[in-house]
Amino acid sequence: MLFYVDSPCLVRGRTRSTSYGWYNEALASRLGISVYTRLTGGGVVYHDEGNLNWSFIIGVKDSFLSPKRVFQEGSKYIVKSLNKLGLEAHYSPPNRIDIDNSKVSGMAAYSTNRTLLVHGTLLIDTDLELLNQLCIPPPDCPKVVNISEHMQIQTSDVINTILNTLVETGFKPQFTDGTEDVCQPIESLRFDKLA
User: Fold this and answer.
1) Around Cβ 40, how many Cβ atoms within 10 Å?
2) With contact defined as beta carbons under 8 Å apart, do 117 and 127 qualify?
C-alpha cells in the first residue's frame, strides 16, 4: 500500500478515449500545470495537496480477475474505511467510489502475470474549482465532491483509518522509507511492460 500527495498536476491514462474523459490542454499549458502519463488506463485526474492518492501493489499467481472484480476488490478497504469514519461510501461501477451519488474517488489498474496494481484518488480537500476547469469528465460521470464537504478531517486521519482497516483484515503493514522492498513490485510492472 502506498499513499502519496502531489503538487498541482494532471495525470492521464496511457491512451486517449472520449469514454474516459480528457483535459483542457490549452488551460493546463497556460497555467503551467504539468501533465504526466501513467502506466494504467483511464482518464485524466487532477492531483494536489488535498487529494490523497493510494495504490495497492499485489503479487498474484497466474489468475485473471475481471476489471469489475479488480475495482471492487481494490476499493473495498477504502470504502470500508470511509464507512468507519461515518461516511456512506460505496463502490460504483465501473471504477469509482461515491458518497451521496457524488464521486470522491476514481480508480485505474494494470496487471501482469505476476503483479496487480490498483490505484485511485481520494478527494479530501482538493481545489475543485481548478479540477473542474481542467478536467473534462467522461459521459454520465457524477459531479465530484470533497470528503471535507461531508466532514472535517485531516489526510493523516484518513490514512490511519485505512491502515487500521487493513490490520483488522489481517494485513501486516511493513513501513519503509522507499527502499527496494517497496520498489520490487513496481520494478516488476515496469520490466513486464518493456519486455
Assistant:
1) 18
2) no
Ramachandran angles phi, psi of 51, nearest 5°: -115, 115
d(CA 44, CA 161): 27
Q: pLDDT value at position 186? A: 46
- Per-residue pLDDT tens for 24-34? 999 999 999 99
Using CA atoms of 91, 63, 57, 131 in order, give the dihedral in degrees to the nearest 10: -40
pLDDT the model gives residue 189: 44
For the chain, domains (ranges, CATH) are 2-194 (3.30.930.10)
First to last CA, the chain: 25
pLDDT at 74: 86
The alpha carbons of the chain give a radius of gyration, in whole angstroms, of: 16
Point out the residues of the chain with pLDDT beneath 70. Answer: 62-63, 175-195
Residue closest to 106 by CA, chosen among 116, 90, 119, 88? 119
Residue type, position 60, single letter? V
Q: Check residue 62 and give its pLDDT.
A: 63
Which residue has cell 520490487? Answer: 184
